[in-house]
Hints:
Blueprint: H1 6-9, E1 15-19, H2 22-32, E2 35-39, E3 43-48, E4 51-57, E5 71-75, H3 79-88, E6 93-99, E7 104-110, E8 116-122
Amino acid sequence: MPIGPSKELTAQLAVEIYVSNLKRSLAFYKALGFSIARCDDTFAVIRWDESYIFLDQRNQVAPTSDMPVANVRVVVNHIDTLWEQVQAANMQVLNTLTTQTYGLRDFTIADPDGFGVRFAEII
């Protein structure tokens, strides 16, 4: 598959996540509202608005845990709707929906390999 568009290549910051099963991870992120920018057998680029996450399938991925070593924050305008969607899908919740003192309402879930995805809405 050809390299992605120039915006993908020149993005100031892009997170790359190692995943154990690319198809499973794509289904997880698509269910949350990410779009697939491009994909081949072992690598995919997903988007949230103008931001990118790279999913790179590897033979060995660190085991999942109750506390990921990192998370990526995604700012949304519909936190309550997304929270209901996550609960209905029985996704692994690491931190429940909470109003934070720093001006956000947020929650964190684990992706299929234990990487944290934190959704937040600005108060």
